[in-house]
Design the sequence.
């Protein structure tokens, strides 16, 4: 019995990632009584799929430990920050379902506390005003093999440093003429600890504080202060900040915060053959190669939302990816797998013809419209049925007819019979061609004894095709997306430009849909029978001119290892 109990216990044990194990240890040792995490984006662009991992990881930790999750903008660099980016980030975080605690926070609201923190360091003899230029600071810093040299201004008195720093704040010095540096160790093996700059003079209008300040804190100084002010217990960030952790710890230690936050790093999310870098996306936007930061070919969160991805699919993707200490790349096909899994049982399967070919049933009564019962999703009966109009003239996919078919082609060709989905059997009896020899019409006869649900009068056919009644069809534009990157050439050229796939977007202007799409709104998604999953574009679509984006095709090369 004891062995059986042990097995059950082992089977029911939920494995934890290394961050959760670290938090458990901190709680056991009494370092923290409450867990508080945050997502701290800089508002200098739109968020991408990698940021979604950070959002969901930080929010998930807060949820798991019954703690708090803050949304805070690290807006300490006004040169690239815009209100547009602030608004887009808020929309992304809320769309993903990450519920932040209280009001949205801004690092810029803490500028007074940061200034006082800098003054405190000066009074402790831990910071000094330096007149070296940016280039001279780099020269004095040394290399990975050689230690740095002390600034000639490093030994200024506390009184002089206080006066100069206040004069910097009052705007008495030109931009770039003076900086405030932490006094740590110019011989440190970690270059980040060689008297880093923590404040600079910069006359820039800030999106939040306007022209109230002409000095701004550096990120590595501001970030730990923000975390400490908000009572963040664990500052979860990506691996590139690992070498900055000693400076993070130095700041919170020297400023003597009673409960200092702890920084823990995890591996970034890298997707194969995609563009995520903000400067690269900005270049694509500025050059008009893509339709803004939310172009459905990008992997910004706004773009994924516009294309038709769901928060649930993104969360599923992040669970499959997991949390790691080492960088690795994930196949984009895994993300496609997640959206298919999320939508296949939820969304109705509707009929839409993307490459229309006219089909005429010669023995069907002219002018008659018959309404057939069609299941909304054959795998989910709970979604019910709908009425779909059927008539003498239909549209079918052009690929569903061939005049001279190859072997094992079971769709429509002269003399062959197929089943029209949820309708009748039809047999091809004739075709009409244009002057160039292209087939423009297919003529058929139908068997009224083979109506769907009747048992087909004991008859069988090998092929089933979908259709849309011509008289009641809705015309729409459909956009087919492929990877923005030409995968055969890699993502980037030597000059930093992106290898664009010339077939990344195909626009189909005259597609025909069954009338049940009437009243659909931007963001609504469906499965187009045999064509894939599609979403109504929330930017360009109108009620009288529907535009659909293909979210993903039906077939996948990705196999989930279970």
Sequence:
């Amino acid at each position: 019995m004891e062995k059986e109990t042990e097995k059950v216990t082992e089977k029911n044990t939920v494995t934890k990632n290394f961050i959760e194990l670290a938090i458990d240890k901190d709680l056991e040792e009494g370092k923290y009584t409450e867990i508080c995490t945050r997502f701290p984006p800089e508002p200098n662009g739109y968020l991408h799929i990698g940021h979604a991992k950070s959002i969901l990881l930080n929010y998930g930790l807060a949820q798991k430990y019954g703690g708090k999750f803050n949304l805070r903008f690290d807006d300490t660099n006004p040169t690239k920050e815009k209100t547009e980016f602030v608004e887009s980030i808020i929309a992304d975080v809320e769309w993903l379902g990450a519920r932040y605690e209280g009001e949205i926070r801004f690092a810029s609201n803490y500028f007074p506390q940061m200034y006082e923190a800098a003054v405190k360091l000066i009074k402790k003899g831990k910071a000094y005003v330096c007149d070296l230029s940016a280039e001279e600071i780099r020269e004095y810093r040394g290399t990975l093999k050689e230690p740095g040299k002390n600034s000639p201004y490093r030994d200024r008195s506390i009184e002089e440093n206080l006066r100069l720093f206040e004069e910097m704040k009052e705007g008495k010095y030109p931009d770039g003429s003076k900086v405030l540096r932490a006094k740590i160790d110019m011989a440190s093996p970690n270059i980040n600890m060689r008297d880093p700059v923590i404040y600079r003079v910069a006359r820039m209008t800030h999106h939040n504080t306007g022209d109230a300040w002409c000095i701004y804190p550096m990120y590595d100084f501001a970030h730990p202060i923000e975390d400490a002010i908000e009572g963040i217990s664990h500052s979860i960030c990506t691996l590139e900040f690992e070498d900055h952790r000693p400076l993070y710890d130095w700041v919170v230690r020297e400023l003597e915060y009673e409960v200092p936050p702890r920084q823990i790093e995890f591996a970034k999310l890298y997707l194969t053959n995609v563009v995520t870098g903000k400067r690269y996306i900005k270049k694509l936007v500025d050059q008009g190669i893509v339709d803004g930061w939310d172009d459905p070919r990008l992997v910004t969160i706004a773009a994924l939302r516009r294309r038709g991805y769901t928060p649930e699919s993104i969360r599923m993707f992040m669970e499959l990816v997991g949390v790691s200490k080492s960088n690795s790349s994930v196949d984009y096909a895994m993300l496609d797998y997640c959206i298919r899994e999320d939508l296949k049982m939820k969304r109705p399967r509707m009929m839409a013809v993307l490459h229309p070919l006219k089909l005429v049933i010669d023995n069907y009564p002219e002018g008659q419209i018959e309404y057939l019962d069609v299941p909304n999703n054959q795998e989910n009966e709970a979604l019910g049925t709908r009425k779909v109009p059927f008539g003498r003239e239909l549209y079918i996919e052009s690929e569903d007819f061939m005049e001279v078919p190859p072997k094992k082609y079971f769709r429509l060709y002269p003399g062959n019979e197929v089943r029209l989905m949820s309708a009748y059997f039809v047999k091809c009896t004739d075709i009409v061609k244009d002057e160039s020899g292209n087939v423009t019409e297919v003529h058929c006869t139908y068997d009224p004894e083979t109506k769907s649900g009747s048992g087909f009068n004991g008859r069988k056919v090998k092929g089933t095709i979908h259709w849309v009644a011509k008289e009641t069809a809705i015309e729409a534009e459909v956009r087919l997306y492929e990877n923005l990157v030409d995968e055969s050439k890699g993502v980037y050229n030597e000059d930093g430009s992106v290898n664009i796939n010339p077939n990344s977007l195909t626009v189909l202007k005259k597609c025909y849909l069954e009338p049940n799409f009437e009243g659909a709104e931007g963001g609504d998604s469906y499965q187009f029978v045999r064509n894939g999953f599609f979403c109504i574009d929330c930017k360009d679509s109108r009620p009288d001119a529907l535009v659909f984006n293909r979210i993903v095709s039906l077939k996948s090369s990705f196999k989930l290892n279970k």
Notes: DSSP finds 13 helices and 27 strands in the chain. The longest strand covers residues 425-433. Residues 1-11 have pLDDT under 50 and may be disordered.
